[in-house]
Write a structure and sequence with these properties.
Order of helices and strands of chain A: EEHHEHEHEHEHEEEHHEEHEEHEH
Strand content of chain A: 15-25%
CATH architecture of chain B: 2-Layer Sandwich
Strand order of the largest sheet of chain B: 2-3-1-4
Distance between the termini of chain B: 31 Å
CATH superfamily of chain B: Hypothetical protein rpa1041
Number of helices of chain B: 2
Number of domains of chain A: 2
Shape of chain A: globular
CATH topology of the largest domain in chain A: Aspartate Aminotransferase, domain 2
Largest sheet of chain B: 4 strands, antiparallel
Shape of chain B: globular
Structural class of chain B: alpha+beta
Radius of gyration of chain B: 13 Å
CATH superfamily of the largest domain in chain A: Type I PLP-dependent aspartate aminotransferase-like (Major domain)
CATH topology of chain B: Alpha-Beta Plaits
Oligomer: heterodimer
CATH class of the largest domain in chain A: Alpha Beta
Strand content of chain B: 25-35%
Number of strands of chain B: 4
């Protein structure tokens, strides 16, 4: 299905940044909320406030269903994965903590960690990935010391799409008694995450990528709320007689009015995934990715990164001898193809791949993309190579 | 006069969880603003018939719903003019 911008058909391949097309039920749910439940959730006892609170409740419930996590009060709603990650890092890390992470992380992980490191609060170790973007559980195991308190790892790289061996890393962490925070920004809705099977201590997700919600939605799922201090404090609608912040979840972590219309949309987005079936969505996106990889292999000038990675539907490449920004500009202006070029907010990943500081061109698919769109993109790349 | 049990919670998350769990178990339950005589909470709580309070409490415990308090609430019947307005 094509997207349209100002009457022009566009092909949207930037779903790792924000999923472009949403199920139609998402915008309907947002409008319904604004029309029929536009009150403050959890602050009053009147009917509309209860309706708004029910939306918030259903959002925790459906996130719990998707990730197999029934303790829904420990599903903290945030504005995105970045806020969820910051909550986990600033709320959980104490003076003297040692943290291990990987070179494939997004700046939403690296910047808070480096900030804490540079302030002398934590010691940070960044493990290098191999050419396929993989950090092996064995590397993690070897890096853990008796002072290690947290491992932070992405579910999938936003540059190469490489899936991390979350289960293997979880077992390494478990063996050493170290907690684990998973950045699920690229993985949630793009691969299976079952918190009953692998109960990570913290899972941060965003709503606006593969969960089909609007921007401004996300969550942090916390195994044990005793592990985490609050990050922000303020109004919650509970214990209003007290001037200190409540210490029970989710209120402990949610200060101020939540984005109710946004979460209404997120509920509809996740409902779509559950109704269609995650396996079907993941399978189709895998098919698109393999199709693209096969076609890219036919163009001699294409340099593909992380060629043998087990990946989500995200692929990074370059056209030899050409800055990726030139290619992205050409694709957009001449062919109406939206793709992202540059460093994708993950400088260490590009250092690992040898693509710092120019970066790469990235195509990232969703359930709403088609093979015909990929055919157009291949034609466009060939056109570029021919006329550059 | 009708007697109700007013069940209060630490937050609206548990109030809604309670409503859901109780309804699933065939109980009549209504969410109401927290009566001022019991608490200064801003949000809402659950109201069930007084005779069903023990059963409700048991069900909620079984489902890990954290109850703050259960209060006895006596209401003159003429004050109960519920369902006058409905929101669609």
């Amino acid at each position: 299905m094509p997207s349209w911008v100002m009457g022009t058909k566009v092909i949207y391949f930037d779903n790792a940044a924000t999923s472009g097309r949403k199920p139609v039920t998402v915008s309907h749910a947002i409008c319904d909320c604004l029309k029929h439940a536009n009150a403050n959730p959890g602050r009053s006892g009147h009917s509309l406030s209860v309706k708004a609170a029910e939306i918030i409740y259903s959002c925790r419930e459906i996130l719990g269903e998707l990730f197999n996590f029934p303790k829904t009060e420990n599903i903290v709603l945030t504005k995105n994965a970045t806020e969820a990650l910051n909550l986990a890092l600033y709320g959980g890390l104490k003076n003297g903590c040692e943290v291990i992470t990987t070179s494939m992380e997004h700046n939403s992980v690296l910047r808070p960690l480096n900030h804490l490191h540079n302030k002398g609060i934590i010691r940070l170790y960044i493990l290098s990935a191999d050419g396929n973007g993989v950090v092996h559980p064995k590397q993690i195991k070897e890096a853990i010391t008796e002072d290690t308190s947290l491992i932070v790892v992405t579910s999938a790289s936003n540059v190469t799409g490489t899936k991390m061996d979350l289960q293997g890393i979880y077992h390494a962490a478990q063996e050493a008694g170290v907690k684990m925070l998973v950045d699920g920004a690229q993985g949630a809705g793009a691969l299976r995450i079952d918190l009953k099977e692998t109960p990570f201590d913290f899972l941060a997700v965003t709503g606006h990528k593969h969960l089909f919600g609007p921007q401004g939605t996300g969550a942090l799922i916390i195994k044990n709320a005793d592990d985490l201090d609050s990050f922000m404090r303020g109004g919650t609608g509970s214990q209003s007689e007290m001037t200190i912040h409540p210490d029970f979840p989710p209120d402990k972590y949610e200060a101020g009015t939540l984005n109710t219309p946004g979460y209404a949309g997120l509920v509809a987005g996740i409902r779509f995934i559950l109704d269609e079936g995650l396996e079907k969505i993941v399978g189709y996106e895998h098919e698109l990715t393999e199709y693209l990889l096969g076609k890219l292999a036919d163009i001699e000038e294409i340099q593909l990164y992380a060629p043998d990675a087990d990946r989500v539907a995200t692929v990074s490449f370059n056209i030899q001898g050409t800055p990726p920004s030139d290619v992205a500009y050409f694709l957009d202006r001449e062919w109406g193809i939206c793709a992202r070029s540059g460093l994708h907010c993950a400088p260490e990943a590009h250092k690992t791949l040898g693509t710092f500081s120019g970066g790469t061109i990235r195509f990232s698919f969703s359930f709403f993309n088609t093979k015909e769109e990929i055919d157009s993109a291949i034609e466009a790349l060939k056109d570029f190579v021919k006329h550059r | 006069m009708t007697v109700y049990a007013v069940i209060t919670f630490h937050n609206t998350h548990f109030a809604l969880k309670a409503k859901k769990v109780l309804e699933k178990n065939g109980k009549t339950v209504e969410t109401i603003p927290v009566p001022r005589e019991f608490s200064s909470e801003c949000g809402f709580c659950c109201k069930v018939p007084w005779d069903e309070r023990d059963m409700a409490d048991k069900i909620l415990r079984e489902h890990d719903v954290q109850v703050e308090h259960i209060y006895r609430w006596e209401r003159d019947d003429d004050k109960e003019r519920k369902n006058k307005f409905t929101f669609v």
